[in-house]
Amino acid sequence: MADNSSGFAVAGTLGTTSGRGDGDGSDIPAILITENASWDESRKPTVVITGAIHGNEWATPEVCLGIAEYLLANKDNSEAARDDFGMLINEAAQKTGDGKTEKKIVPSISDIARLLKTVQVVIVPVLNPDGYDFSHTDAGRKSYYGAGWRPNRRIQGLLDQDIVCYRQDGSQYASVPSDVDRCFLADFDDTADGGDLEEEEVVVCESRDGSSLYLFEPSLNVDSAEMFDALYGSTDPARVVCASSQRRVWKDAWPLIGEDTVALKTARADGYLQESSGVDLNRNFQYKWDVVQDQKHLFIRSRSPSSRMFRGRKMISEAETAAMERLVARMNVVALIDYHAGSTQVLYPYAYSTTEHAEHTYLGKRWGKNDYEAFRLLSEQIASILNRHDRGDPSIVNFTAAQNYNDVSVGSGVARDCYYQTERIAAINIEVHDKRYTYENEEFRSIVPKICKINVPGAVWFMFWAADLGARVED
Ligand SMILES: [Zn+2]
After folding, report:
1. Which residues are named in the active-site annotation (predicted)?
2. Distance (Å, rounded) from C-alpha 168 to C-alpha 178?
3. Intervals of CATH 3.40.630.10 along the chain
C-alpha cells in the first residue's frame, strides 16, 4: 500500500511485543498517511486509528485498512468526499443557512486532499498481534466462552507465593490472611462428562487450613455483584477474594469429600493450578488503573492474571501499551479512534464511571460548555453517519452514542480514558459489530466488507473534525 502512494504513505512499526515473554515477540505494524509522509514529522496534527487491541475483534483491522485505502484512493481528490453510496460525508458543510436550530458540528474541511495537507493519520491495524494471531488458532477461538482470545500472550509466571487478597472496599491485604478461606476466579471443566471447559465461570475457595477446596455457590453468576456480596457477606466461614499468577480449574470429575468440596491435594495432583497468560491491553493504561469504586464484579477479573480482562501487574507493563504511549508522546496526536467489536456504539470518555463526566475543556469549548458535551455531540453525529445506509444486517448498524459500553462501567485502565485524560487527545471508541467477535471464513467474507463500508465514512468525518482541533488546546 505504502509503495504506490507517491509519498503519501510510509510503513513502519510501533515496536515489538513481548510474545510469550521469551524473545518471541512480533512487530506492531503501522502506516502513516499524509502529504509528504515521514515518521520524523512530529509537529503536524495527528489522528491515530487503532484496531485489535483485543485479539478476537477481527473486523477491526479490516476497518482500519479500509480507512487507509479510502484515504490513499482519494489523496488527490479536492472535491467533497463521498461515501460508497455517493452521499457527502461532511454533508452539513455543503448546506448554507437552512435556518435549522439543531446544534451540529460542521467541520471546515470536506475533502481528502486538504485533509492530508492538514493532518497526518497513523493507522495501527493490529495493536495486539500476538493475541490476534492466537485468536485464529483452535484453542484461541474457543477461549472466553467461545468469543475468542482477547488479551496479549505474555506468560504471567508460576510463583506460588504470589497471592494477593483484597478487602471488600478493594484495598489490598499486606499479606495473605491466614484466618479466612481464600477464593479465586476459576474455570469450570466438565469435559469428562461430555461438557465444556468454561473459562472464568466459577469461584473456588481454598480452606484456611489448606486441606480442602470447594466450589462457591455455583448458582451465582461470577459476573454479578451478588457473587461478590455473597463472598464477603457470609461469615461462616469468612472468605476473602484473592488473585494469583496461576490459573485455577475446577474439574467436575473430582471425587467429593463433602458438598461441592474436594481434597486440595487431589485437585493439585490433577491440574488444579495451571499457567496463565495474557494482559487485557485495554485495562493496562495508567488513568484510573487502580480504580476500585463501583467495580464489584469486575474487580476480581481485572485483578486475576488468569482472567481475559487482567489489567496487568503494573500500569503500562506491556510492550503494546508502552508503544502507544511512546507514539502519543512523540507525535502531536490530537484525536484517536480505537476500534472494537461487541456492540454498535460510539463511545467517549470515561469508561470507568457511569456518573463522572469529562468536564475539562481540553477540546476548546467550541462545541459545548465542556468536553462531555463536545464528545456527546460528536459521537451522536458519527453514529448518525454510520446509520445512514442499512446494508440489510441489523447487527452492524443501529449505532448509538454513549459514555459507557452497554451502560455499565467497564473498569480501570481503559486506553481511551487515558489518551484523553493524560494526553488531552480527543479519543473515542467505535464498536463495529453487535455481540460478535470472530467469524467463520464464509461469513467473514460476506459481512466484514459491509462493516468497512459502514465505518469508513464515520472515520473520515471524525478526521475532518479533528483537523479543526489543530494543536492541542490547553485547559
Ligand atoms: Zn474490545
Report:
1. 431 (proton donor/acceptor)
2. 17
3. 2-151+316-467
As a whole number of Å, the CA-based R_g of the chain is 24
Residue 314 C-alpha cell reads as: 503494573
Task: Compute, in angstroms, the gap from residue 53 CA to the centroid of ligand 1.
Answer: 7
Mapped onto helix, strand or coil, the DSSP state of residue 324 is helix
Are the C-beta atoms of 309 and 280 separated by less than 8 Å? yes
188: its cell numbers:
469450570
d(CA 203, CA 195): 18
Q: What is the DSSP string of 463-474?
A: HHHHHTT-SPPP
Sign of CA dihedral 165, 166, 171, 176: negative
* Distance (Å) of CA 88 to CA 75, 94, 346, 450: 16, 8, 20, 18
Going from the Cα of 336 to the center of ligand 1, the distance in angstroms, rounded, reads: 15
CATH class of the region 2-151+316-467: alpha beta
pLDDT tens series, the chain, 475 aa = 777 788 999 999 999 999 998 878 999 999 999 999 999 998 999 999 999 999 999 999 999 999 999 999 999 999 999 999 999 999 988 776 555 556 789 999 999 999 999 999 999 999 999 999 999 999 999 898 889 999 999 998 755 568 999 988 888 899 999 999 999 999 999 999 999 889 999 999 999 999 999 999 999 988 888 888 898 887 788 999 999 988 999 999 999 999 999 999 999 999 999 988 999 999 999 999 988 877 776 788 899 988 999 999 899 999 999 999 999 999 999 999 999 999 999 999 999 888 899 999 999 888 889 999 999 999 999 999 999 998 989 999 999 999 988 888 887 899 999 999 999 999 999 999 999 999 999 999 999 999 999 999 999 999 999 999 975 444 4
Q: Cα(318) to centroid of ligand 1, in Å?
A: 17
Beta bridge partners of 333: 46
Distance 194 CA to ligand 1 centre (A): 31
**How far, in Å, is the centroid of ligand 1 from the Cα of 339?**
7
Calculate how far, in angstroms, residue 79's C-alpha sits from the geometric centre of ligand 1: 35
Q: Measured between alpha carbons, how far is residue 348 from residues 294, 342, 343, 466 in Å?
A: 19, 16, 14, 15
Residues with catalytic function? 431
Task: Give the span between the Cα atoms of 464 and 106, in whole angstroms.
Answer: 9
Phi/psi zone of residue 440: left (φ > 0), alpha (ψ -120 to 50 degrees), beta? beta
Neighbouring C-beta atoms of residue 390, cutoff 10 Å: 11
ipTM above threshold 0.95 = yes
